[in-house]
Amino acid sequence: MEIAQEQAATSRAMARSTINAERAWILGELGGDAFGSMNVVESTSQTQRGRSETTNARLVLTCKNEGRTPAWIDNIYGHMEILARQSDIKGRGNRHDGQTFGVMGPLGAGKKRVRSLDLTCSGRLQEGNVLSVYVLVQYRDIFNFTRETYLAYSIFDSKNIYQQPLPERNRNT
Which pLDDT band holds residue 92 (cuts at 50, 70, 90)? Predict the structure, then answer.
């Protein structure tokens, strides 16, 4: 019985290895426009409920398929928030907290595709604050497994964007 279980475990491991060698691997990167700008804009509006302040950022998402087979990008989610300081960033982002940017479509092996993301959050960016951006790219591979790529970046002003050095916020499944 023990030998059969070991053989089954070995077979499963070999199948996973084959799938991982052949599957799509979508990697992503966030950045600014052709001039490197994130176009961070703050706005204030007056409503019946009072004054409303928002911060908007236009980012460019580049997805590249580093795998050997095509992928179908089914959805892109994005979330942005203002934090008092970089050290306030904790944990994983949540797709339900942010905006949905829809389907990007199929992406062949070795190909890349670009999409603009217009993110909005409440509040104004004050001196010393940081914009924390979290993006989730959800895709399917040829084996019809749903996969996810998570990206987390910090924006300090209209020209400075950096990937957050947090493995739990930057990962691929």
Answer: low
